[in-house]
Amino acid sequence: MRRSVKAPARLDGVVTPPGDKSISHRAALLNSIARGTAHVSNFCVGDDRAAMFRCLRGLGAVIRRHSGCSFSGDAECFEIRGNGLEGLSEPSSVLNAGNSGTTMRLVSGLLAAQPFFSVISGDRYLRQRPMGRIVEPLTQMGASVTGRAGSSLAPLAIRGGDLEGIDYTLPVASAQLKSCILIAGLYARGQTTVRQPAVTRDHTERMMASMGADIEVDGLDVSVRPSELTPVDVRVPTDSSGAAFWLVAGCCHPNARVEIKNVGINPSRAGVLEVLTSMGARVRVENVREEGGEPSADLIAESSDLVGVEIGGEMIPRVIDELPALALAACFARGTTTIRDAGELRVKESDRIGATVEGLGRLGARIEETADGMVIRGPQALAGAECQSHGDHRIAMTMGIAGLLAKGETTVVEAEAASASYPDFWATLETLAGR
Predict the structure, then answer these.
(1) Fewer beta carbons under 10 A from the terminal one: N or C of the chain?
(2) What is the pLDDT of residues 149-182, one digit of tens each?
(3) What domains are defined for the chain?
């Protein structure tokens, strides 16, 4: 599908992105192995939700749509019924994680703990993403995990159970890798400790703690011991990564006021706000509240005079998903913006460094690719052109927002990729632009 976008004279409106994908996935998985029933409202939407539900249902979890309950009221939610840590069953066919790396890595941690055989795979993009980093610690814990290319690529064949806790230092700051190990650690004998090189999103730790897990956080180290979980109802806040696109649109358009409702502002995920603030963005944070251990707020972004900054080091894990959008913001900032230490972008749904540089370069950005990041020199007026999404939802959305800011018409090829995490993205874009 091709989508064409033109810059409007004004951007003005209120948007509510889908529920946070990271929190939604953890709420589904952990409640599926708790003992009892939970309700999860404002669940994330799109292909990634379908992937997680498909895998959990393939293991025997009971997940059904629900409405009119005392928790969610008239809003749709999902009822999840778990039978405890030992309540899953051997799947009768290959588990399909689609394009969802979160599903692949978190479910693999769960499969490593089960006393049966399973195979998990995904689409052609996911089958090219590195899985060796989860295979190593799960093997150390006692699971048998094999796959293509020396067990570094999916499909992964897993024969699990009888795990021992380990003390493991992450080779990269990765919330998915950390969560994979912690989920397996719920079943392992003794203590499992994960040591991080930098702060990563902490939704798994927060949710495990709210469900009664024996978990301890000591700085960058997280330890978990065998634990039965109590189900917990969750109202999922709006996805901060989805909100980032509208923040950039509001800050970079010369005549804009964009309000984004109920955005998760978990400190481990709020890096995009910190970076934009350091660039001089006019973003107000209002109506701060907290539910289920997760803080949220309403954000208002207005046209801003941005300056270039350096983004690297410990900030990178906190903005890894928002870097394409921040690179777009840098095109409108005075001076040079340097993104470094972001080699992890090379192994996302696409090579996001190459895809971002290619797409913004087609629009006239002064942007250069480096081994682990990008250098952007601004401000630079953008002009409409044809851009590729490379099958990556975040690249599709970045180029869509670029179209709101560029002169003339911008066409995004394979624009349907946005539906992986944000099915209503293009409709929301048109509404915000007053069309």
Answers:
(1) C
(2) 999 999 999 999 999 999 999 999 999 999 999 9
(3) 2-18+237-432 (3.65.10.10), 21-222 (3.65.10.10)
